[in-house]
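[[Per-residue structure]]
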Amino acid sequence: MKNITEIVKKAERPVKVLQFGEGNFLRAFVDWIIDNLNEKTDFNGNVMMVQPLANGMGDMINAQNGLYTTCLRGIQNGKPVEQFRQITSVAGCINPYSEYDKFIAQASNPDLRFIISNTTEAGIAYKEGDKLEDKPQTSFPGKVCAFLYNRYKAFGGDPSKGLIMIPCELIDKNGDNLRRIVLQYAEEWNLEKEFTDWVENACDFCNSLVDRIVPGYPRAEAEAICEKLGYKDNLIDTAEIFHLWVIECHKKSHEDELPTSKAGLNVVWTDDMTFYRTRKVRILNGTHTLMVLASYLSGLNTVEDSVKSPLIGKFMKDGLFNEIIPSMDGDVDELKKYAADVLERFANPYIEHLLLSISLNSVSKFKTRDLPSLLGYVKKFGKIPSHLALSIAALMAFYQGTEFEGDALVGCRNGEKYLIKDNREYLETFAALCSREYKCNGCKAKAMTEEILSREDWWGMDLTSIEGLKDVVEKDLRIILDEGIEKAIRSLED
């Protein structure tokens, strides 16, 4: 079988995007978007990847001349869909740890307009000790500062050669944070004021929100997919069909240079992404957190199983449409449409999304994702949202355990061990509560509910101050401990 490099021809285009990150997500999201722009608009630009760590995928990418295939799979309008695309938008990948001069040479590229990144949530962070003369700097913001300084010098401070930064790391205000740390390095390195003025005025650090599930290389199916494609590809990248990129620009929209709407892409340019971030966190992430622990305790293992389960599926949908969405501000029809898309994505049979993976750090996830919906519902309707309250009880039931295995608390589901992973303080609190002797499950439910809900340091407030919440959660937890999670869910209909 021939290799992809023998089958696919790549057009020569100027490099307009410098991309920090060469992993599955960016290749199936940003580089896929750029490839669509090249086909459907006059963008005519390629991506040069920069490997953010010393060890990465650069050699594999260069061995295939930057070529690879995306395989988008999912359910649309109730029917399975599979889309293959040969990506030709990647010029190559530079390893700055062994090719620093080649990396810095890109700063002199007159066609370069964008820096895009996904260096993990920990990537946009200050690292003490980075210096301008390092080759390379340890931190991602340090590399960006050095790169921008070299570009500033190469073009004599020409304001038209400023760059547009669009980080994709999953942290709030990612662009603002990158800008802050870049300027911190500029000050620490005693770089001239004219440079910092150029960074502030000629460059734009956009905040962005990305949304696409990308499982990546389909190891178990790779051979069969290559047979279907008719060529060997060691970098096949699988993803769901849905995609959303929200880009918040401080100076102006840059869609004139990145013409995403002309290509029919789901990219939103805005001067305030608050609504989109809130919508994703509370509907997509919040629905995950609402159902995940109850679903796992009921005996299920994946998100797809949960959506298809008559019991858990109904619990999830009722909580989403009757509590989470009513608690939110905004266009209800638009929120419901987004929610329907989310549920269709959850049911994707091509993605095995394990509930135990989602269960990681459930305490902080509930605070961020579901507590705002609970508080919003109480404020609007003056009563306790029963499904969100039950999810708190399910959390307490899931976190039952007294023994530790490494940093994880050991739980038990129907005689089967599972690992509870969260902040050590949270786990030790649950372990201590579970180690006490109780006369009955009702006594245990009462003690746990009072202790956990009153932890102002966990939730940002004493949740027992919400009238009626403690009683509802305590009742739900008692039913779970006495009769199981299924009985507790069915009791919501009583």
Observations:
- The chain is about 45% helix and 15% strand.
- The chain has two domains: 4-272, 275-493.
- The mean pLDDT is 95.
- The two ends are 62 Å apart (CA to CA).
